[in-house]
Amino acid sequence: METELPFGSPRKRRSFFEPIFKELKKIKKMENEMFYSFNNFKRKTNLFRKASKETKKWITQSILFLKGIIKELSK
Predict the structure, then answer these.
(1) Which runs of consecutive H residues, i.e. helices, occur in the chain?
(2) Superkingdom, according to UniProt (predicted)?
């Protein structure tokens, strides 16, 4: 261990595994976020699958209509 003074208290060295654990923590957090977003997407698609054909057709037409309006306004 290194010391600041010849007979002073030793400085605490940085752990070798500290940066590795930090990166692993980030990866785990990202995986959790992806899992939650996937479950949310899955739930929404299940609701769409259970709807009647007429409702599906109405929803898709309204989405396409709104996309068209957004394109016209953005020009």
Answers:
(1) 18-50, 53-74
(2) Eukaryota
- Phi-psi map region of 26: left, alpha, beta (phi>0 left; psi -120 to 50 alpha): alpha
Record the tokens describing residue 17, joined without a space: 């595994």
Domain ranges of the chain: 18-74
* Phi then psi dihedrals of residue 10, to 5 deg: -70, 145
Q: How far apart are CA 61 and CA 6, in angstroms?
A: 79
Cα separation, 67 vs 7, in Å, equals 73
- Which residues lie closer than 8 Å to 46 by C-beta, 6 or more apart? none
- Residue pair 22/14 in contact by the 8 Å Cβ criterion: no
* Residues 10-66 pLDDT 10s: 667 777 888 888 888 888 888 888 888 888 888 877 766 777 777 778 888 888 998
